[in-house]
Amino acid sequence: MAALWRALRALRALPAGARGRSAGSPGAVALPRPLGADAHEEEPMLVAQRKNPDYHGFSADPDADVLNMRAAFLAGISVAIVLGSVFVHYLPDYGLQQWARREAERLVQERERRGEPLLTSNYYNPKCLPLPPPE
């Protein structure tokens, strides 16, 4: 890290003409261009934006750019809707409502098989409860 700070101080100490064509402040460092790039050539994205002000980044051709943007938007929204629906469908049983329904149906079938009434006036079986003696 110390070597980086020394290099930056050395660049700031150079005279303005020795640093290159940087139009920035005296402390600004010009970023290097990729190898083989012409210094006077504009970047392709800037050229595409000047040619098409509504540039979305998919193609330099304006019609293909709009078509690809719409296709990507449709595909993204479709995937979000499908995956969101699948996620919600496979969420666990909220509040155990489905389990309670299955358990009630099982108890109804068992009581019908035994010939007992489906509902009784007692919430608990009175034979299993320790009741006080009658007075």
Count the strands? 0
Largest sheet: none
Name the overall outline: elongated
Radius of gyration: 38 Å
- End-to-end CA span: 93 Å
Short recap of the structure:
The protein has 135 residues and is mainly alpha-helical.
Task: Describe, in plain words, how this protein is organized in 3D.
The protein is mostly helical and about 140 residues long. It contains 4 helices and no strands. It is elongated, with a radius of gyration of 38 Å. The model has no long low-confidence stretch (mean pLDDT about 80).
Task: Name the features.
135 residues; mainly alpha
What's the arrangement of secondary structure elements?
Blueprint: H1 2-13, H2 44-51, H3 62-89, H4 97-114
